[in-house]
Every structure is written in structure tokens, then in C-alpha cells.
Amino acid sequence: MLKISNLCARVAGKDILKGVNLEVNAGEVHAIMGPNGSGKSTLAQVLAGREDYEVTGGSVTFEGRDLLALPPEERARAGLFLGFQYPVEIPGVNNVYLLKAALNAKRKAAGEAEVDAYDFLTLIRQKMKYMQMSESFLTRGVNEGFSGGEKKRNEVLQMLVLEPKLAILDETDSGLDIDALKVVSAGVNSLRDPKRAVVLVTHYQRLLDYVVPDQVHVLSGGRILKTGDKSLAQELERRGYDWVLEAQVA
Amino acid sequence: MSPALQTSGQPASAALRSFEAQWRARPADSLSPVREQAMQRFLELGLPTMRDETWRYTNLRSLAAQSFVDAPRMTRGEIEPSASISLLGDTERAATVLMVNGHPALLTADTTINGIEINTIREVSRLDPKFLMRFIEPLSDAEQRRWSLLNTALFVDGLYLKITTQVATPLVILHVATGNGVNDVAYPRVIIDACPGTSATIIEHHVAQGVYTPLSNSNTHIALGSDAQLEHYRVFATGGGATHIDSLDIHQERGSRCKQFTIALGGGLVRATLEGHLSEPNSSLDSYSLLVGHEDRHVDCVNIVTHAARDTRSRQTARAIASDSSRIIFNSKVIVDAGAVHADSQQSSRGLLLSPTAEIDTRPQLEIHADEVKCVHGATTGRLDPDMLFYMLSRGLDRDTAQSLLVYAFLADVLTGMSVPSARTSIENALIAQLPDSQILRKFR
After folding, report:
1. How far apart are CA B56 and CA B65, in angstroms?
2. Which ipTM score applies to this complex?
């Protein structure tokens, strides 16, 4: 589904990604872990198409298409979803407007009619209930005045409504208490499907107790240094990252 | 009747000479003494120039070179405001009073509409000139009042509205500007007299019709009696070639509350001045300015709010959006007089630049002569937030939709302040029509 080959990227004149290789197949859940500043969020943003992040080398294909050639909105319509580490507040733009516009953009790209207003509200209410979000959300601006946890729930809500083929969740677990983590994890798990894939970018093994990955990668210094199964995450939790880095130098 | 006119040292401009000629041709009326003083002062001071503090961004040189004549007086039959021209159009059956080039074009039935007594200034001055004088500002040499002096000297007629009860339905004053040639000038004058304890909503909508739009030098005087409440709108929607200079004075007595919306959607050059006078304790003024510039339009807005009594409150909220090579200026000033303890004021102005050649200048000022006051201000200007834009794109919205929604969201602080739903809907409609991708925005209402 997603094939990243030797991807290099630069942010504000500084090389951050220095040759990332990664392949994600349909039905898989991958976790990308790594120390601060290793390039995890940059990778997520580059995949979503952030324009001020300059790709300097390599290639990315998504279902056989050249992902890097697409503007961000077309990547989203093709079925890619980025859950932001820091979801932005957009006062004055209603949550429901954004969700409806997003869903309709996707449907339009797929040649489907716009969603019926009643069906849409029914859908939103059902997903909100699943994410244990309050009704007041419907009338508020996008992420406006939301707590950190509410913002993350909102990211997962958007994901559930849009049903992407590939979801990249950038530290969606950070700043969540244990109850919120369970809700968010349940949301992610509900999307697991032989036709879909999920990439979790995370600092902590905690999330991986609830969303069990097929593969775990360690990203450091702009490269993937090690790949393993879920036991790698547990080992990282126990031993930290240094041993991976040292093994690499050696 | 002509005063011994003196000019200010420099040779009089063509415009000044033409204003003087207009003055000489005016027949005497009961207001002649005050008009004469006003004209004398105006001619002594001359047209404002960019050396004047509140005029430093607005150049009137080409206007000064013109020779002006009175815009034609037209009968109601000659003006056929189409449904689209009227702001509240078909959305609301609000009563509309028509003014053409400053002349009231009233129907015989227009004596009382929804509890508001409607009369012409000419008729009021004939019946009781002394009464009328209280609404003719004490003449002032202040630079921002220069055009008001000229209006006082030269207005021929105008509207006098007396609010005598609590009025639920908005009243629209439709100001139509329509000229015979490029040198026409009109002097619309409106007096709004809100009796104690009353409430009303009045919308002044300035539009143009026909090929030529006269220079409009308009003046509105609002007097709020104790505990009166008024929501007042002035909407400038004349075409790109039009020049509009508007002065609004608000005088507030004890416990009165005024919400004022200044909305500049059109006009080649719009200069809108607001002077708020919180003359008695517990009076409160909320001023909202929504300034939209596109093409090469120029919008210059000056707000001066004076807290002259204790426990007075003012809020100024301005949002400016400039695209193409337009320019928007927002100058706001709060003056707290000695003795106006516990004055509470806020000034917030935000500008949004949508093109590299657009310009926005904002300047909040404070002048405080009292202790124990709470005055805050903030001003920012910038471009569309790239993080917000990327967030929306990453959800699949196309760029035009995302940008339009962000522009629209930027205006939300002003729009949500409008408490009359029909007025808000109408102004949103007019506003949306001026923004890029209006068809997209309509869908999201």
C-alpha cells in the first residue's frame, strides 16, 4: 500500500530525513518509535504533504501512485489521513462544517453524491458517542478551546468519519489519561481491517498495549535503524534507545 | 447672504471654491447662523491634507482639484431600487426609508414606522429650530470634523427619526447616490433621537445607482437618552469609483447602550469616522468595524471614543481584510477624561492580508487623564495561518474552500456581535458576495 524508498527531506534548511525506507501493506499496523528530534513527525508531515517541508530525495508510492506528486488535499482524498500531534484551533470554522466538507470532498473524488444532511448528523452522533464526546462539540469551532485530550479524540473522530485507507497517527497517544487512551485505542482498533493500514508514531510503548502492532521501527537521525515485532517496543521501553544507536555505530 | 470668506493663506483649491459657490447659492433658513459659522470655519481650515494626523494615509489631492456641484434632486419615481439593492431585500419585511442624494424621498404614509416617528429635518427646523440645534454638533476645529463642518453648512434636508418606544423590527435607511456627472456632491444628514428607555435597530445602507456616483459627505448624529438601547449599522456598498466621507457622532446619556457596526464593502475611497461620547455614567458603546478591501480600494476608518463620565464602558473590535492592491487604515483612539474613574475600554484590531500588494495600517491609541481605569488594546496584522490552511487541506478540502472558510472565520467576531438575525443574514449575504469564492461560502452558511 505504502512504499517509502530512500526518502530525504529538509526543514528550514536542515536535513531531517536521511534515507527512510519503509513498506506498509494493507491490513498491517506499524509503530514508529524513536528519540526526540529523530524525524518521526517530519516523516508524518512529509507524507501528508506539508509544503514548507522540502523533499530532497527518494520516492513514496501509495497504492502505486506517486504520492509526492499530489497536493495534500488529493492525498487525503486518495485515502491518506494524518492525525496531528498538535491539532490546530480554527476559531470561527465549525467542527461540523469541516467534517462535512471533508467527507464530501472524499465522496466527490470517488464519484459519489454529497452526503445527505440527516444521514450525516446521524453518522456524526454515532461516532461521537463511540469516542465519548459531548454534544457541545457540534456547535464549537474546530478544536477551539479543546483540552489536549479532546483534540486527540477529535482527530480520531475525523478519522472514523473519513475511513481512510492509511491512517498516520502522530503521537495521538501523548497527553492522554488512561481512560482517554482506551477510547482512542478502541477508535483506532475499530478501523483495523484487511483493506486498511495504520502507522502509529509514538514515544511510548503504552499505546501499543492497546493497539498491537505488526511491526515496530526505530527511527533515529533520519533513518530507520531497526525493525522488529511488538517485543521490540517492550525492549525499548525497558532499555531505552541507546543500545539501538550504539549497535548501529558499532 | 454670503459671509466674508477668508481662506487659509494658501490659494483656495478648485473644490474649496466650488463649495463656497454652493454656499452662496443656498437660500437662508432657520439654521443659517450656525451654517454660516460652520462654512467660515471650514474655509479657514481648508481641506485636510496628509499632514493632518488622522489623514496621513489618505490623499485628497485629486478631489481638491475638482469643482463640485449639487447632485440632482430626484423624485421617488426616478429611483427604482431593485430588490437586490435593498439590504434586507426579501429576507425580512423591514420598513425602508429612502434618501436620494441626501434628500428624503418619503411616502405620505412614512410618518410613523414601527413606532419610529419620521420627519424631514427641514420640517423640524421650520417647526422648532431651537429644538433641532441640540443635534447640530457644537462646531469644532478638530481635523476629523472638517467634513462635518461642510455638511452642516451645506446639507439641504435630511431625516429626523424619533424613537419613542421599544421597536423590534429594524428600520432601513436606504441612501441612494446617483449623479449626472463626475462632479456631483451630496450631503446626506440623519438625526436619530432615541428617547429614554427606548430600543431600536437602524441600518443605514449606502448604495449607488447609475453611471455616476456623487461624492458623498454624509453625517449622522445619534442621541441616546438615559437607558436607551440602539443597534446601528452603516454599510458602505457603493461602487469602485465612488468616494464616500461619512461622519458619525454618538452621544450617550446615563445607562444607555449602543452597538455600532461599520461595514465597508465597497466604494473606491471610504473614509468613515466615528466619534463616541460617553457623556454620563454607566453608558456603554460597542463598536464593530468590518473593513473589506479589494481591487485598488481605499478604506480609512477613524474611531474616537471619549469616556467623559465615571463607570463608562467601550469596546472596539475591528477586522480588516485586504486583497489585490487595496489599502485599509484603522485608527482607533480612546480618551478618558479627568474624573472618568472606572472607565473600562478595550480595543482589538486584526488585519488579514490576502495579497502581497495589499496594505493594512492599524494604530490603537490611548489618552488617559484619570486614575483607576482599565484600558487594554491589541493590534495584529498577518496572512492566512499556514498551519490552519494545511490542516484543512489534509482533510481533503480544496484550497479555495479552505481559504474562503478561513477568511470567513476571521470575520466571525464581528458577525456574532450582531444581535438582529435578519440584519446579520443580510450583511453576511452582502459580505459573502464581496469575498473570493462566494458560491463556496454560501454552502457553508
Report:
1. 19
2. 0.96
Question: Would you say residue A29 has pLDDT above 60?
Answer: yes
pLDDT at res. B12:
83
CA distance B204 to B231: 11
The one-character DSSP state at B64 is H
pLDDT in tens, B270-288: 999 999 999 999 999 999 9
Residue B428 burial (C-beta neighbours within 10 Å; 0-12, 13-18, 19+): middle
Would the pLDDT of B103 be above 70?
Answer: yes
Judge: B405–A97 Cβ closer than 8 Å, yes or no.
Answer: yes
- Domain assignment of residue A213, given as a range: 2-249
Nearest beta carbon to residue B412 from set A51, A84, A92 = A92
**Tell me, what's the pLDDT at A220?**
92
Whole-angstrom distance, CA of residue B84 vs CA of residue B101: 19
Contact B390 A106 (CB under 8 A): no
Q: What is the value of pTM for the model shown?
A: 0.83
- B409: contact with A, CB 8 A cutoff: yes
Q: Which residues of A touch B397 (CB under 8 A)?
A: 73, 98, 101-102, 105
B65: exposed, middle or buried (C-beta count within 10 Å: 0-12, 13-18, 19+)?
A: exposed
Of B386, B394, B409, nearest to A90 by CB-CB distance is B409
Q: What is the average pLDDT value for chain A, to the nearest integer? A: 92
Q: How many domains does chain A have?
A: 1
**Residue A142 belongs to domain with CATH number:** 3.40.50.300
DSSP-derived pairing of the beta strands A90-94 and A141-142 = antiparallel
Interface contact A169, partner B, CB < 8 A: no
> How would DSSP label each residue in B24-59?
HHSPP-TTHHHHHHHHHHHHHH-S--TTSGGGTT--
**Which whole-number Å values give the CA distances from B311 to A26, B2, B225, B397, in the listed order?**
67, 46, 17, 48
DSSP helix/strand/coil, B112? strand
Decide: helix, strand or coil at residue B255: coil
CB contact (8 A) between residue B395 and residue A105: yes
Q: In 3D, which of B240, B283, B247 has the Cα closest to residue B262? A: B247
One-letter amino acid identity for B223? Answer: A
Is B439 an interface residue toward A (CB < 8 Å)?
A: no
State the DSSP code for B377.
E
Which of A11, A47, A75, A90 should be substituted to probe chain B, the one whose Cβ sees the most B Cβ atoms within 10 Å? A90
**Chain A residues inside the 8 Å CB shell of B388:** 88, 90
CA distance B380 to chain A (A): 16
Nearest chain A alpha carbon to B416: A92
3-state SS of chain B: helix, strand, coil percent to 5? 25, 35, 40
Pairwise CB contact (< 8 Å): A93 & B393 = no
CB A31 within 8 Å of CB A216: yes
Point out the residue among A52, A76, A106 whose CB comes nearest to the CB of B394: A76
